[in-house]
User: Fold this.
Amino acid sequence: MFQYSGAVLTSSSEPSNSGFPEAKSQGDDPPIAQHNRVVASPSNHGESGRNAHNLGQARKFTRKLATSHYENFLVASILLPRKLRQPFYDVYAFCRTADDLADESPNPDEALRKIESFQQQLDATFAGCPEQPLFVALDATIRQFQIPKQPFDDLLAAFRQDQYRNRYGSIAELLEYCQLSANPVGHLVLRLGDSYNAENRVLSDHICTGLQLVNFWQDVARDFAMDRIYVPQTLMREFGVVEEMFGQGTTAEPLRRLLAHECERAEKMFQTGLPLAKSVKPWLANDVKLFAHGGLQTLRAIRKIDFDVLRCRPTVGKLQQFGLVLRALAGRL
Assistant:
């Protein structure tokens, strides 16, 4: 949900950094609760003196990173209770920074090195010793909401996989990738929304996987420019698609048919997952519907150009995005 770049999220070229911002804390940080997954000493996480200042500065950093990287994050945060905005900033900052390390490094070896360093910082955080500002803020949120380590590990595993794997043999393999690259984000959101259970997890997985698939079909040209093809090879053979078609200026008919088929799969995932909105907190229900309907709008944009995703990248216009937000606020999605 945090990283979806289709109907709801649009990327910015602003680089991230890992230092403390100069501005002081706003003093509106939520309280911290202990839990049994992280052993943290009170001296590291007190709410007074220098430690409180450091935590406040760290939260200021993640807040700035979140609100500067994606314009829609500002819009989405309107739907969040005020007390939950900072935790979402903290988790988003982790996801955004890891994604930047994976995609903006000059080569795969450098990306893997940076991701491994990031993993070590995550490991230290769950051992009770966060070091960098991002992880100081994230640690407070992890302990407040009792978030386990697995979804963070899974996301980093997906970013590693992107460095050495650029083709997928079957739809099953691609869906396994989505279990690492997309579904953990939904698990984190459910944790923050006090709505995590086995049933909700399954529904969330459908929405998150649907969003990831839509992003793949929206960005066929962009991915091919980076020597990545997410269209499974078994489907390519079934529909008569050859790799040379991805380098053409317009989308060949066999590839259009394949994309039409896969857009149907993604739409079914959204429809299967949408009942999640009925079993989470009301404020979270609006976000669930916003993202699912944003994905559906992107599918409509792909269909509107007759699946010619190589000629132009299908997008959802600002007016349509604004309309989605208004409908979510009005409870009409």
Summary: The longest helix spans residues 282-304. The two ends are 17 Å apart (CA to CA). The chain is about 65% helix and 0% strand. Residues 1-148 form a domain with the Farnesyl Diphosphate Synthase fold (CATH 1.10.600.10).
